[in-house]
């Protein structure tokens, strides 16, 4: 195609947005369309974005080896460029020109359009040009005259080829620019590719030699640490520091989560008086975010002591076991631990082991591949353990997990790997485990209903949640929280609190909320009597009162229940039961006789 024909095609596209895709190469079409998308002015196209002197000097230092190799390549392959006027250009991976050499007269013309050191030559900045296309496509290309999108480059003919570094990533571009009157010859493309390959191979060889040297240095160290190259990219990490060292390879040191790591020192690794990398000493940072508790803590000493323990164990990755009665707030504490842990960025995945049929437990926890069994989801299923990767897995009612599944869970906790049902691939998992039970796991282990080895895996930080009857000071706060959440503020609140504080709440906070819901429904706009509130509690309660010849008042029934519980909890020991009830021994003997508990 002649220069005149190409000019006409360009003008038609610029002025009328009309383009014959059968005439022009697809590479040109794609780049022209991108240039329009980037709103490049086709009547302009000179370089506009440039580096400050300090930024330019820094990039030169960072790419010192590549620039040196570009200079060597010009000496080595100059015989292929004889009898032509040219400029040879080297850019970095962002399209900034780091170095150029060649005909001085041409360099003067290049400066007029800002095609000089420090300026950025990408498609988004100046429109279609060989450097920008090479960066985007990672392939060599030849852009001639009016194939450039912007007028500033129409007098130029440019050939470019990417320079590849380690792992075949583009680290720069070699560009050969000539006056547009030179013909579009294949041998120009071949020459530029030869230069780019020379630089690429030399760079990769240097990287390999340096990494070999650094690994030898790393292996001589007796302390765990992180090995980085000169640009602070991680090359190796001691397995003592992390569970999956390979997951960090290739990432920048700055990408390590600051809340987990603290850099102690960076030792430069030198070869021939040049720093080629660093040995980085790190330690796990103590998790020091402000403790978050989004729920009602109340005023009781027992619950505040529990929260103090939670503040200590939550920032670690240690397994936690919660032991408490039904409705005492195990799930609330599990959420709190997750939100204050190093795994807070991940998901909290909750599983109630008591609600899953035994024959479905394995697939629910471990997941399955497509077609693993009849009736399975045709797309397969990601199990709860895998869903909790990099987060927290909360296994409630762990005591109901079948013994066969207990061994499978133990294997995951030991190896941090799982295999889906019907699959063969091992999947790495990393999560924080919280378990909960409303039965004493120690007793279950002694009764051989729970595996001893799993017990020691999950019972690292046990936390006992006090029942509501042992922290009655919190009932007022819980009621106020319910009222606020439901925009309900009864002026008979004191009577409500008084009645609630006299009841033992076998169902704990859950039962209390259940009662408050009924209060809201029945007495949003009415005023109940004390007796009506007592009846409302008993509507949803499970406490069975023994019939006696004497009719007991509600207070007496509660008192009898509390005394009975204290005697049971203390195995009939009168002094200890009296201390728990905060009454004298003589008073307790009298009450026992009154309620016929002897």
Describe this structure in words.
The chain is an alpha+beta fold. It has helices at residues 3-16, 26-37, 53-62, 64-77, 104-112, 123-126, 130-137, 186-220, 301-313, 330-339, 358-366, 384-387, 403-415, 441-446, 452-458, 475-485, 493-501, 508-523, 530-540, 554-569, 574-581, 585-594; strands at 87-92, 97-102, 141-144, 156-164, 170-179, 226-229, 234-237, 261-271, 274-284, 320-323, 348-352, 367-368, 381-382, 392-396, 417-418, 427-428, 432-437, 461-464. The strands form five sheets. It has a five-stranded antiparallel beta sheet, with helices on both faces. It has a five-stranded parallel beta sheet with strand order 11-14-17-10-18. A four-stranded antiparallel beta sheet has the order 7-6-9-8. A hairpin with a 4-residue loop joins strand 1 and strand 2. The longest helix has 35 residues, at 186-220. Residues 544-549 have low confidence and may be disordered.
Can you lay out the helices and strands and say which pair or pack?
Blueprint: H1 3-16, H2 26-37, H3 53-62, H4 64-77, E1 87-92, E2 97-102, H5 104-112, H6 123-126, H7 130-137, E3 141-144, E4 156-164, E5 170-179, H8 186-220, E6 226-229, E7 234-237, E8 261-271, E9 274-284, H9 301-313, E10 320-323, H10 330-339, E11 348-352, H11 358-366, E12 367-368, E13 381-382, H12 384-387, E14 392-396, H13 403-415, E15 417-418, E16 427-428, E17 432-437, H14 441-446, H15 452-458, E18 461-464, H16 475-485, H17 493-501, H18 508-523, H19 530-540, H20 554-569, H21 574-581, H22 585-594
